């Protein structure tokens, strides 16, 4: 965040973290890290009641007013006012953090359309049911804590790009079952809304660590089938698509793809993730230069040809 | 099977496979492969009705009477009589195939006792519930199609040996949670009753191939918790124990052990499986000789010291 | 080939192999293996002159007339007449062997169009120049000796499918350089016309074994640039695309992809090759069955769901 | 160590390291690092004679009197008196460093009992002979420089735990040869008394680096057999047990286990080492938390369930 | 062996194997496989006494007279006379089996000269002592059961070639210690005279399987030092040279080379072994052809250029 | 560099790097890092014209006069005079940087002699032609940026050592083709004069990164053959030698050695590179000590025996 010392500010910010301390007067205070797209800043909230502690949890959007100070070489915000926002403020997490280039509404429409286009009632109903269950999180969560699509709505954006890619490939290779491919794309990472902690300061949940998003989603498919009274091999194949989408045991899939669409789903996932990494690695690089090394791309660095721009 | 050509026999046998053909008179006939512990023999069942086809499915125990013939250098049984057995015959699959050295009843008592000893109601109820659901198969199935415990009741025998080993280890290392260890042992391979086709001519089911016994059982634990209205971290930890019991991603566990008892469960499984392989590899070997190579033990061959017997 | 002994036949066939022998009368004879799509048959060509030996080399199309005999349990063709075909016969290699589903003319038009669409004169001229040089072979050769596209015109068919896929992907990810992608697709395997022996009884040439198609084509690109007096980084990037298209050192690329389009080229190659393998593995399989193991797909076997057909 | 500046102390401490320097007056001085269980502190020993240099070697227990100073932000002990301890002081290394939870005497009795229980005179005599040779060190050394049992008497404690585990396993699998198992446990790491430098500031000796504890002990077994005039296959099998106890070539065993007891010895070693690591990793962790990553356990971190304590 | 049925022969042959049977008259007979450089042939020795059984053990050289018969499509020798040879016959194993291109005497002189040239008394005495102990076998044994130098005196021939190579390399890189290099070459595989069964029908001994030639020789070096009352670091370094000569743990060396000469010894061993494999693979190949695949050279096949001969 | 503040110096130095800045008076200045064998020093070149910028590029040898200052704790050279050197100065890069122990002239003579000794005109002419093309760089460049022979003329010195080693080995194994071996040695790394930036502050060029020295040289061999109108298999074999000299795909050779001399070339390269690393690692170590870990030798550290010096 770029402010001058002494500057008066009024801002919408997001609580990134909250730590409780005891001041020398014996009263509790909160150290809040507040962020927006331009960075983050520390603010002390003195004489905090336990209700305040509840109110200003991480991921809360607040409006603050205060003055910029400097403390040990770093800027600090001296709070004058703070309040949680409400609907009238019209501020969303995606306004304060890096977010997908498509609006949530737009992505919802696209996903809805692909589900609508499915021909198999079993596959269509299970997919729709599972998306509905976690719809809000699905369109808000990042796709990962790092490496690719690690921004607000990154998960949905990844899915939308993959759906388009799946459609192109199915157009070229007509032996592919579109229903399986679309459902596989939509469901493959949906377990991440339980594996990850949320769009802000994203980390792994305990369940995410011990079970993983693959297992979480496979179970949800079974549960959806029970709730919708759907039987038949489609349920098992959908589970297999999710189970095998990492491609190999050593990459986290206990079974490798053993159905054609599962194999292709793995490639589609790969291409979209890698394109995202490549674009981000190269966007800060000038023609004739190499990017920094990209860990998830075997630690390679990439060259931008002099005739590119 | 060792019989002389022309010998009259009356035997209890198990149908290993059934293939339908059409004879030159236009009528259907069945080619049955019948087996007992001494081997197998082919028999033709002429003029078979579709009802006969239903009756003499694989895994059926039959009583046959007939005469031993030879056809193209192999013995054949010329059927005079055949009928499926009933309870009065008192013949079980385990009488006709290699089977575990403990009686089913004995193994049931042991498993029941270990479940009874559990202190956590959540863990105890889920374990008991899941064993009950597939109890008959659990005490009949082999533990694998090959490598170790590949005999009738091999799965339960493997579990019973592991329970005793788990108890010994928990006695020596008191920081271990016995409930988790015992439940982990009982549930870890229980999904094999869906992964494998049964105790006779065992192969993988489609579900076994596409999902695997680990995933199958993890789902069943969730389902059991729902049916029993059990909530709490115990459910997740039980799922993690099953999920991680192969120890590493490349050995089929999408998550490695991340709970102490999960790590130890993996070792207990390993020791009991390997002891079974070692004993079987060495039982046909004389002191001073090497066994044949054992594929699942890195293709090693093992030496029986001259001072052993 | 299914013929009856004694049958008189007149056929167009392809010489698959020729072996010279000396008959008991001291004269030379040729043992020809002749093939068409239905299989192959042996024929003896007695009293062969050295001119005949030259005429009936492998890959020659011949018209034969003769009678079907049987020798040591296998059919043999007793030749009455044989002659090499000429243009009037209108028979091509692709009529006698399995071939790509698109006609050569059709594939030529598509490749020409993609070259025409290129915007960079340097890339366009090099690509066109190299295709022209080996045009006949390019549209006739298989893409490999086994695994995928191992049929007449398989190389060009693989390229045409990849071009369409490249176009779809470039439509979705506008940061990609279409010229590089198209040129990379067209050139990546073009060295196979020197690495492989030809469309019939395909094997590796000595040069193919010792240098490989990647190195062969990289050199040709340099040579083309010299011949066309083209300088500039485009030449180096085209060489890098070919050099890196196997993706990793251990898969035969001495440099991994270090340019965005090189990374994507590797995926496009992979998807088209794998789709070809998958379709061929599953085309002989009924719903509810598994295919045979596919070596180049990590020896997996693939399941055709019961709801597919 | 927690002392206040200016505090007068009289302490038993262990010399961890000694470095010689030359003071500005041209006389030698020693910089001693002195430690006990609470940590370590530096002390300067001025005007040190070469006899003092010999006396205050690392691993010496000393009694010191002095005053706590501070120098460049770190505490220092200003020595007033220092002397090496003698038997009357009754202080042992294990009083000043972290040590095994069992007393040396207790561990000696257990090892003696297991040796006493052996039935094969050859195995018993060799084992007893080798333990006797290095008895003092065996009950004092750690089992490693880090990872597991890296404390005073850690080697013997590891052996004692393994002996109990070996007994439990032999009770469950009667085909195991107890003599081999017990001797294997006692001898497997005995070479560490030559591979490691001692219980204090443990490092590898040159011999340890160039030959390793496995080779060292295998040679000692041969030597013991010569000294005891013992011949017969038992000697070779004991050597094989030690040689193969790391399980695989890449883990440092030039031969993999090829005798049943060698295979099981490897597992017993593994379980006891891993239990030690797990207990230490989890003892500082609260329920609901993850431990730090444990390098020797594939860098995993472990979860302590909320229902544990 | 190429003989005609009915031919009378008188030959020196080597007993390759002996199997005892009981004839229909109740008397024992021996089935002997007899060999020379041209191949092997079976002979029945009827009415064999137990003394005969002792006399005609494998590796015995015999003189036989008899007639060539045919039995079940294979030649057999009908024995008329058989006797073990003695010194007067002047026939050695190397006359009947493939053997090294240098005479034993010649190789002995070379090895003696290299030992004589050593400057370190410790290294020289240990090396000479160990060669003396097994001198007869050392100059008779093959270097392996397959892959390279698998012929009579192959071990010594391998050592002699390596000594010359070691000398050349030491001439070029004067920082190398020639004593260590020569001693390392002479001792590195000397344990093979215990690891292998002998020059005829070579197999692994039990000791060879369970301990391996590396461990066997390392122990012998220690034992030699004790017998010669030699102390000092030279002993440890010689042991390290042998211990590490396979280069990596996964290739059977429990410690990698950690001394300069150990690293170079590994390369010298490699070059000589590989040259032997390459020469043998290519000696049956014509210019312009590829050899068969060589398993120990990563299963590669090698090309003989057309300009070679 | 060790100078005292205030000292007047006149020195020959090498420009290691040049950075342009704008002074507060608005004029350009250059920050030059100047080096000789004793280290490097910074100098400011004020009021630099664009011509000066061209003149004092990295790798230029200059004569400077000036005074030693100190700035922020580091020495700086206050320039009084600076000029590029010319032939009269008689100063070469190798006088100012660490360089090979043989003079360039001496190495040129050796390489010339080996080329002269070749018997195949084709191999001889191609080798001579390629050396001539880059002769100046060949005798000036290092062999690598780090690991081995990373000094001025390191590339040629590596080649000269390898030529001698190749000759020794060919003397011992007469089946080797000396022409191929010598040409392989001379050409194998010649592409490094394009892969690397030069002898000063050596880094990889873009071409080096994207294509690599192996590919660069293989192309040059083809180009040389065209320029010299040489045809025949020798050209292909020379290309194969260069292509395969890293030994394995994962080490950067797209084809493994498939010709005998290619296999041996790989070993010769290895030995000379490793000897260079070992000598440099051990030259700063005293007897009885271990060297630092050497990354390119599997991160091992090496022991210098107490009897070495």
Automatic annotation (TrEMBL), chains A, B, C, D, E, F:
Q: Which residues form a coiled coil?
A: none
Read off the Gene3D superfamilies from this record.
Hypothetical protein af1432, Nucleic acid-binding proteins
Task: Give the matching SMART domains.
Answer: HDc
Cross-referenced InterPro entries: HD/PDEase_dom, HD_domain, NA-bd_OB-fold, NA-bd_OB_tRNA, YhaM_exoribonuc/phosphodiest
* Residues of the HD domain: 158-274
Please name the GO terms that the record assigns under molecular function: exonuclease activity; nucleic acid binding
Question: Does Nuclease count among this protein's keywords?
Answer: yes
Could you tell me what this protein is called?
Answer: 3'-5' exoribonuclease YhaM
Task: Recite the lineage of the species.
Answer: Bacteria, Bacillati, Bacillota, Bacilli, Bacillales
